[in-house]
Amino acid sequence: RATMKSLRFISAEAFVSNAEFARKSLGSVAHNLFPLLFKASYLLEQGEVIHDLVENWPFVDFNVGKLLGSTVDYQEDLSHRTCSVCLESCLTGLRDYVLNHHSPFVKRLKVVDLTGIKDVEVQFCECKKTMGRWARTQLLSKLCLELLVYLQERCCNPGIFEISIDVLIDLFVTEWNYELVVQALLKKCYCPLKICCVAFRSDNLALQKFFYITKLIDPSLLRKLEIVHNVRLEMEHLEMLFNSIHFPLLMSLTLPARTFNVQRLTATDERMLTNIGEKMGKMTQLTELSMSFSILTGRIQKLLSPLKTPLKLLDVSNCSLNHADMAYLANSFHANHLEALDLSGHNILDLYPSTFFKLLSHSSSVLRSLTLEDCNIQDTHVNMLILSLSPCQKLQEFRFLGNPLSSQALKHLFTFLCELPMLKNVEFPVPRDCYPTGITYPIDDACLCRFDHQKYESVAEELNLILLQANREDVKASTPLFGSYDAAVQETNNELGAYLIKSFKETLEKFTTSLNKMS
């Protein structure tokens, strides 16, 4: 459906559509029209015009998320368009803002905010070429260093050295861009463009490098910290991190798989776990915590009870929780505030049905997203699941991939899901009857695609018909076989693939060496 445009916006589009004319005329354009022209240029992917608008930006702040968000003149939100042409033009325009001393505009810019850009799976820009978070990190770091080299090599206008612009960004650092980002951060005090890291994601990085760069990014400003996949962080390293670095504004924390393993805890480990809980308790802003694929059996209370602020997001998928953990969650003060909950990998409806029911009833007034993947939910559990979900009238996303449900059970469940008024996204499993008889759950990756695709398509059609007949065309139902889209993983999959091949090669070499020694 086309979004209505005001006459002002249509005029702005007409103005920027002739790039040469628009660029020549910018000097005589009223300041209050710059935001309108920026959004129109972004929509039409007029890179050169975007560059010149940013190079001559007349305001104190430049907030990309707000400028591209819904406005009176054009309500469509463009902040999810990570168009490479547009974003590169923004950043090079920012560099040239510093260098351009011939601009007719007084240099007032103090803050640039790039954090409102949203990375999504489907891009609507014409070029179809995206610039993700990793690439934005790379380009900004490169431009900052280029700027410094330029200032050192040329006799520049002394006024340039008085320019100081905070650039708020969500940094994403891996082995492949680590050196560049470190250099940019080390020289931050000399550069007119000051990288200010608000959110930091680290993947495929040695621990020593992770600790070093975490200190460089100024942790006192950090609101979100994601340590994922190939950062080998374990419990003792996490304690070391919390003991050596203070995160006063941290709101969101994601830890890599196997950070915790409480199976063989010594007395020292117990003290360490207590200390980590207490340190997290001092993070008074912390409301989002993801600890998937750790072993936390019987220790959830020890970690979460010191928290002073209730959690709004909790991911404890595949954490081997027991009844005591589930009972704590259901009765804790966090339960009434949970907006997003992931309990994947736990046999909840078989082992803890009443506790699960209690947990959902407590969080029902605010719960927006629920993930129950690989939870062994069977046909016999569907009525219990419906009963548990019934109070969750604010639910917008429900993901339950990897559960052994039949086509009939899915139809029954979908008939109920139509009644949830806010629901927008459902991820459902391939029906059990589409797989060969005797398939065991959880299904391993090798067998995941070996199902009757024709039968699946027929069932998916019936499920969508149920939505259609209930006038719920607004609900998107899908089966992403290998999990939900992750923009960060998608962007760095070449590096992660290379890392996995290297690890596999090293393992084979060690195995061969051991065999040779034995023989």
Automatic annotation (TrEMBL):
PANTHER family: LEUCINE-RICH REPEAT-CONTAINING PROTEIN 14B, SIMILAR TO PREFERENTIALLY EXPRESSED ANTIGEN IN MELANOMA-LIKE 3. InterPro entries: LRR_dom_sf, LRRC14/PRAME. The gene is Lrrc14b. Belongs to the PRAME family. LRRC14 subfamily. Keywords: Leucine-rich repeat, Repeat. It comes from Smutsornis africanus (Double-banded courser). GO terms for cellular component: cytoplasm. This is Leucine-rich repeat-containing protein 14B. It comes from the Eukaryota. The lineage of its organism: Eukaryota, Metazoa, Chordata, Craniata, Vertebrata.
